[in-house]
Amino acid sequence: MPFITAAVLAAFVGYAAAWYMELVEGNFALLLFLATIVTGVYWVAERLWYLPRRRRAAAELEARAAQRRGTDGEDADIAEAKQKVLAQPWWLDWTAGLFPVIVAVFVLRSFLFEPFKIPSGSMIPTLLVGDLILVNKFTYGLRLPVLHTRLTEGNAPRRGDVMVFRYPPKPSLDYIKRVIGVPGDEVAYLNKKLTINGQAVEQRRLPDYFERDAMRYFKHFEETLGDKTHRLLNDDDRPAFIPGAEPFPNRQNCRYSVEGVVCKVPEGHYFVMGDNRDNSLDSRYWGFVPDRNIVGKAFLIWMNFGDLGRVGTFD
């Protein structure tokens, strides 16, 4: 078993190293699931087989020593020998010993909350590059990890929610955007003005926003979607039309023009956009988010090492 365990652990380390060096496309959910299964098998084997064997060996050692002494007493040498017999070998310590921690992380990450780091500026000013956020995994219904099969119904995403989802063109990547249109909505983004089902979305102009990475000011607005109010940016240097829109499923539901785009959201899908409206690759470019791609609802910045004042909830 030590050799088999060494090979299994080496395979995990090799996969992680190849992922880190970008030699393979990593899948953390799958890696965590496999780690849970493997360590769980060792944990069961330890409880039902290996630990009872070590306890029997320790009892036999104590009995033999007692017979040699003619007493039931125990000296320091026997106590030390028993400790060595009862100790887990390294290959069980690194598998069965880690199972409680790994299974706790697996359950927490798969069904309750998952941490993410914001990698780009597409959600500025709501979320900044480097924000560490938490995502609620059960609001929209529990799903099986890896398979993504829905277990519970949950609540449907609403307009204005900040949602994490698996990027439709490449589901191994997680994206974060704001829900703009729900199934059945007609979303129009023309001349940088948002309309939903023929009703203009309310906007209020705010003082210009200074974006530190770009070292320039952008137009800054407050927008209300349903019962949610959030802020957004517009860049006057970017045109209103959508350049480079890709072919995507249900593209026939969208009409593109020099003014922008109008899309009818199909059943079981959502239309999402970044709050940094002119610096976001979103549904305007690659299409609708299927319900099966939903990961969860973002709700909390739990840390930003460059700005501790950002910690807290957000809209």
Automatic annotation (TrEMBL):
InterPro entries hit by this protein: LexA/Signal_pep-like_sf, Pept_S26A_signal_pept_1, Pept_S26A_signal_pept_1_CS, Pept_S26A_signal_pept_1_Lys-AS, Pept_S26A_signal_pept_1_Ser-AS, Peptidase_S26
Annotated GO MF terms: signal peptidase activity
Transmembrane segments: 28-45, 91-112
Domain of life: Bacteria
Pfam families: Peptidase_S26 (PF10502)
Enzyme Commission number(s): 3.4.21.89
Stored SUPFAM superfamilies: LexA/Signal peptidase
Keywords from the UniProt entry: Hydrolase, Membrane, Protease, Transmembrane, Transmembrane helix
Subcellular location: Membrane
Main location: membrane
Peptidase S26 domain segment(s): 92-303
Membrane topology according to the record: Single-pass type II membrane protein
Keyword Nucleus: no
Catalytic activity: Cleavage of hydrophobic, N-terminal signal or leader sequences from secreted and periplasmic proteins
Family: Belongs to the peptidase S26 family.
Protein's UniProt name: Signal peptidase I
Species annotation: Ramlibacter pallidus
Upper taxonomic lineage: Bacteria, Pseudomonadati, Pseudomonadota, Betaproteobacteria, Burkholderiales
UniProt gene name: lepB
